[in-house]
Write a structure and sequence with these properties.
By secondary structure, the chain is an alpha/beta fold. It folds into four domains: about 80 residues, DnaA, N-terminal domain (GMP Synthetase, Chain A, domain 3, 2-Layer Sandwich), CATH 3.30.300.180; about 170 residues, P-loop containing nucleotide triphosphate hydrolases (Rossmann fold, 3-Layer(aba) Sandwich); about 60 residues; about 100 residues, Chromosomal Replication Initiator Protein Dnaa, Chain: A. It has 20 helices and ten strands. It has a five-stranded parallel beta sheet, with helices on both faces. β1 and β2 form a beta hairpin. α17 packs across α19 and α19 packs across α20. The radius of gyration is 27 Å and the shape is flat.
Length: about 450
């Protein structure tokens, strides 16, 4: 038996005898195994990302490190990693000088986590998904360029990278490069400084596929736009494919040269909308499966109803899992309900009615004083009703308090407003999204 195995077995036996001393730790040890032991540290591997997230935080981390140090008879630190459950990859080389797909991903700027397989599709992104699939089947022929635009977290980068990965898996000889626009800018500046622009041009103009992420950031940079214009022309004329992502369509990107705007508009421009409820639920289930976290569909739906931002879904999932670990091995509906109930209480305790007023008026681009005025125009009435809805449901203010705060005659006006917003959010996805975004802003502000 190795020193590492012997040390770990003795540690497990010691913890088992002192479960009262470490009540949170013992149930988790079966999901951890030791990887390396040195004079100064022990490397432990966790079964999933959720467990690592839990053990990395505060007291659990201290408890684990203290108990291991006690077993070792000296102070040692712990390092946590996540167990890879993947088998030997199919792309493993026959000879050691042949690069694997993982090597190629790194070289091309692609991340292996982005693929078509884990991209959830719904009505908000199905056109973009279909266009991406078409591009992979004929680089330089289907849509050139393909420009995907939308807000933060809608999946633009995921889809663009999935195209690159799919092409690379089909043909490892294809020259592909994924490049954030700031990297393109920095490389160009460096090549000018080092007087090596010919090398820079060879790198970019001989590609089969160039993916430029967040292209809006080259706008206003004269030399960068000029270089990319010539890069674009060289690539396309040689049969190469260009894929672009942006936060808005070319027609709305300020300070973008007309010749580039024209080139970008010459292909297919696809708008990706924020994920709807069904898509958010699917994304959450995919993330849970990837991280080996057990969650039922009803719990996933409960989270998706409350979290509108797709990137926040993953953070919420990991936070929830860290809170149930030690008591349960999975996330259930009761855990979700309790989590959001505490979160709502915390929000109500930290926020003031004035905070809600400022956030709502800022979102709808009106003055806070308008919400307290007698104005009854449509651009004021709806925001005022939204403010009442949030003050009631999230700050738990009394109806009479809300009426007094917003200078309404009595509480019946507030009741009517809350009923109306409840009806609108149930049947109008746009209103639901607006209310969710305002609440999200309030969450971030605290």
């Amino acid at each position: 038996m190795s020193i590492l195995s012997s040390f770990w077995d003795q540690f497990i036996e010691s913890i088992a005898k002192n479960q009262k001393k470490y009540p949170l730790l013992f149930p988790l040890l079966k999901q951890i195994h030791p990887v390396e032991l040195t004079e100064e540290k022990i490397v432990l591997s966790c079964q999933n990302q959720g467990l690592k997230f839990y053990l990395d935080k505060g007291k659990p981390h201290e408890e684990l490190e203290d108990s291991l140090s006690e077993q070792a008879g000296k102070r040692i630190r712990i390092e946590l990693s996540v167990t890879s459950t993947k088998k030997r990859p199919k792309d493993a080389p026959l000879l050691n000088f042949q690069p694997t797909l993982s090597d190629l991903y790194y070289k091309t700027g692609l991340l292996s986590k982005y693929s078509f397989d884990n991209f959830a599709v719904s009505s908000t992104n199905q056109v973009a998904h279909a266009a991406a699939q078409a591009v992979t089947n004929g680089l330089g022929h289907a849509y050139n360029p393909l420009l995907l635009y939308g807000g933060v977290g809608v999946g633009k980068t995921h889809l663009a990278q999935a195209i690159g990965r799919n092409v690379l898996e089909k043909d490892q000889d294809k020259k592909i490069f994924f490049c954030p626009s700031d990297q393109f800018t920095n490389e160009l500046i460096e090549s000018i400084r080092e007087k090596s622009t010919p090398g820079f041009r060879r790198k970019y103009r001989r590609l089969n596929l160039l993916i430029l992420d967040d292209v809006q950031f080259i706008a206003g940079k004269e030399k960068v736009q000029e270089e990319f214009f010539h890069t674009f022309n060289s690539l396309v004329s040689a049969g190469g494919q260009v894929i672009l992502t942006a936060d808005q369509p070319p027609s709305q990107i300020k300070n973008l040269e007309d010749r580039l705007r024209s080139r970008f508009s010459g292909g297919l421009i696809v708008d990706i909308q924020p994920p709807d409820f069904e898509l958010r639920t699917a994304i959450l289930l995919i993330k849970a499966r990837e991280k080996n976290i057990e969650i039922d569909i009803e719990s996933a739906k409960a989270i998706a109803e409350r979290v509108s931002d797709s990137r926040e879904l993953e953070g919420t999932l990991l936070t929830l899992y860290s809170k149930v670990l030690g008591n349960k091995e999975f996330i259930d509906f009761e855990s979700v309900r309790a989590f959001f109930s505490k979160k709502q209480e915390a929000l109500a305790n930290k926020l003031l009615p004035q905070d809600v007023l400022k956030t709502v008026s800022s979102f709808y681009n009106i003055r806070p004083s308008h919400l307290k005025s007698g104005l009854r125009t449509s651009n004021v009435v709806l925001p005022r009703q939204v403010a009442m809805f949030i003050l009631r449901n999230y700050l738990k203010m009394k109806l009479s308090e809300i009426a007094f705060f917003l200078k309404r005659k009595d509480h019946t006006t507030v009741m009517h407003a809350i009923d109306k917003i409840n009806r609108l959010t149930a049947k109008d996805p746009l209103i639901k999204r607006e209310v969710d975004q305002i609440i999200q802003s309030l969450n971030l502000s605290t």
